[in-house]
């Protein structure tokens, strides 16, 4: 059971959070583009006012989306017909397109588009963004199957599919450089650090062994700088591979919020 547990982090304002997000999102997701046509398949901050991901995606759309970028989910669920028309317009104009949402947003979307036998070939420079993992809700799916499904439906290769690793309790986010090789390697901005520790002793695990991830985030100035997670990681030269949750840890996060939202509106 998830016990409906949601992470919490209190901020006097979001100035530092917003700056942290914008600086590193530009570097890790936008590459050499200042703005890109965006579709967002996650509820708005108005619909989920306490969701850090809803706030994050609102920043992405506002600061990095071109005119016409918009959300494709409402009280009835995913607006699939409108999204398809939006994508087809970008293809017709040979305009790079970015589709962003929680991982389970994509699961629902890909399932529906495959059922409709609907396929796209997004223009060169297009990118997909998912976050949140799968957390045992709805149907489980292997990462290889997930990214293969995205390639089949959208024509975007796994190395242009970026996964963001974040949580409410942090004010910064970590990214990979695509998902051609799985599990991908996550890394964060220079104002963050991580350790992999033995949960019983709190000491660093030997090189080559998996450990529980500890994050240090200077953008968390109003909260705690160090955060012990329930995530397992394996250190690599340029970051760490996320191996999943510690056995027995509660599932929580943005994909759960998305799943509950879709269930509520059906």
From TrEMBL:
A Gene Ontology biological process annotation?
Answer: bioluminescence
What would be an example GO MF term here? long-chain fatty acid--protein ligase activity
What keywords were assigned to this record?
Answer: Ligase
Cite the InterPro entries for this sequence.
LuxE
Q: Which residues form the Acyl-protein synthetase LuxE domain?
A: 68-260
Report the SUPFAM superfamilies cross-referenced here.
Answer: Acetyl-CoA synthetase-like
UniProt-recorded name of the protein: Long-chain fatty acid--CoA ligase
Naturally occurring in which organism (per UniProt):
Paenalcaligenes hominis
What does the organism's lineage look like at the top?
Bacteria, Pseudomonadati, Pseudomonadota, Betaproteobacteria, Burkholderiales
